[in-house]
């Protein structure tokens, strides 16, 4: 399909979203990400049965962690999509990018760091 | 196991507010099993604190380690060379850990990152419940294998009370009335008469009534 999506979406592949841990999500913020989203299979379609449901709960945990720091919880999100639905992947990438752009740069990285 | 729960982030941030370099020490015992203070939780707390302080433009340096146990002096000794390097040591063990560390290293400032909640067991992934109050004189064999001291809201030894309805406790509908369970179990076993027998008073001096407790085993001493 050769669909185009925003180049500032960096993909980190995992065998199943069930592998995504709270620490991975926090580490992404520590490494300077403005937002992180987990793109999992449709609920009910997990090859490992509940990987995407576990990922959702971990995302929700990190949302609470961000909230407790006074950071917008929307900076981390869970999306479900079919591996066969490329246009949906692009739509989600653009949607999340716009949402993060509205929220602005990461509150964890100060302007002087960003300039460096 | 001893079941603990991490303190709220605000409380921990307040503890370390003046610190520039801290050590977070986990424990591979009970608190690892109840997912409160093992290696992974140490990592999560460290990342969370670093982020929270970055946000305030006041970065903090955090080292992480997890000890085999924090309730045995020999495992605390490993901190000998490191303890002096930190403004604060945050222990993620049950409250025994920070007490052992601060006793061993009197100069160190040691804070607990967990609230030690109760002695209990896992009911399912992510759910733990209280099963024991360490009264020091176990009587569960008289109550169908259930502990009315830990699991009855009133610790009644002659329940159920009038607050039991549909097998639930009046304190919270989520709490099973343990006396409902005891009576049902003994009825099924045909041993309900066990509850009508007159028993001597329970010896509470083995509980906290006798002050802090200690066990000495001469056969194990070196």
What does this structure look like?
The complex is a heterodimer of chains A (116) and B (222). Chain A is mainly alpha-helical and 116 residues long. Chain A has a domain at 1-79. Chain A has 4 helices and 2 strands. Helices cover 25% and strands 23% of the residues of chain B. In chain B, the strands form 3 sheets. In chain B, strands 3-2-4-5 form a 4-stranded parallel sheet, with helices on both faces. A 3-stranded antiparallel sheet of chain B has the order 1-6-7. A two-stranded antiparallel ribbon of chain B has the order 8-9. Chain B is elongated, with a radius of gyration of 22 Å. Chains A and B meet through helix 1 of A and helix 3 of B.
Low-pLDDT ranges of chain A: none
User: CATH-wise, what's the superfamily of the largest domain in chain B?
Assistant: Response regulator
Label the structural class of chain B. alpha/beta
* Overall domain count of chain B: 2
**Strand coverage percent of chain A:** 5-15%
Largest sheet of chain B: 4 strands, parallel
CATH-assigned fold name of the largest domain in chain B: Rossmann fold
- Total helical segments of chain A: 4
- Rounded Rg of chain B: 22 Å
Average per-residue pLDDT of chain A, rounded, comes to 94
Assigned CATH architecture of the largest domain in chain B? 3-Layer(aba) Sandwich
What's the SSE pattern of chain A?
HEHEHH
Write down how many β-strands of chain A occur, each being a DSSP E stretch of 2 or more residues. Answer: 2
Radius of gyration of chain A: 14 Å
Total beta strands of chain B: 9
C-alpha geometry of chain A: globular
In brief:
The complex is a heterodimer of chains A (116) and B (222). Chain A has 116 residues and is mostly helical.
List the helices and strands and how they pair.
The complex is a heterodimer of chains A (116) and B (222).
Chain A: H1 22-30, E1 36-40, H2 51-68, E2 76-80, H3 86-103, H4 111-115
Parallel strand pairs in A: 1-2
Chain B: E1 2-6, H1 9-15, E2 21-27, H2 30-33, H3 39-55, E3 61-67, H4 73-76, E4 88-91, H5 96-104, E5 110-112, E6 114-124, E7 127-132, H6 148-151, E8 168-169, E9 172-176, H7 178-188
Parallel strand pairs in B: 2-3, 2-4, 4-5
Antiparallel strand pairs in B: 1-6, 6-7, 8-9
């Amino acid at each position: 399909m050769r669909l185009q999506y925003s180049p500032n979406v960096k993909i980190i592949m995992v065998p199943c979203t069930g592998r995504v841990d709270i620490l991975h999500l926090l580490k992404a913020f520590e490494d300077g990400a403005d937002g992180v989203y987990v793109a999992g299979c449709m609920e009910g379609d997990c090859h490992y049965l509940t990987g995407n449901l576990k990922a959702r709960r971990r995302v929700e945990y990190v949302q609470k962690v961000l909230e407790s720091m006074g950071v917008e919880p929307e900076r981390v999100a869970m999306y479900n999509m079919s591996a066969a639905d490329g246009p949906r992947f692009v739509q989600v990438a653009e949607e999340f990018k716009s949402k993060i752009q509205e929220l602005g740069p990461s509150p964890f990285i100060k302007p002087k760091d960003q300039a460096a | 196991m001893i079941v603990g729960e991490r303190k709220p982030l605000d409380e921990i941030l307040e503890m370390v507010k003046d610190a520039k370099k801290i050590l977070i020490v986990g424990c591979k015992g009970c608190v690892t099993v109840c997912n409160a203070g093992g290696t992974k939780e140490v990592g999560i707390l460290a990342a969370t604190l670093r982020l929270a302080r970055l946000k305030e433009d006041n970065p903090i340096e955090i080292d992480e380690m997890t000890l085999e146990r924090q309730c045995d002096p020999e495992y605390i000794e490993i901190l000998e060379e490191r303890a002096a390097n930190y403004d604060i040591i945050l222990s993620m063990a049950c409250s025994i850990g920070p007490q052992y560390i601060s006793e061993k290293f009197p100069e160190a400032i040691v804070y607990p990152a967990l609230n030690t909640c109760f002695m209990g067991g896992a009911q399912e992934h992510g759910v733990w419940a209280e099963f024991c109050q360490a009264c020091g004189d176990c009587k569960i064999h008289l109550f169908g294998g259930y502990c009315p001291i830990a699991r009855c809201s009133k610790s009644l030894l002659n329940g159920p009370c009038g607050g039991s309805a549909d097998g639930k406790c009046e304190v919270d509908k989520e709490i099973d009335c343990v006396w409902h369970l005891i009576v049902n179990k003994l009825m099924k076993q045909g041993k309900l008469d066990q509850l009508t027998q007159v028993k001597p008073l329970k010896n509470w001096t083995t509980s906290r009534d006798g002050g802090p407790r200690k066990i000495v085993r001469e056969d194990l001493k070196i």
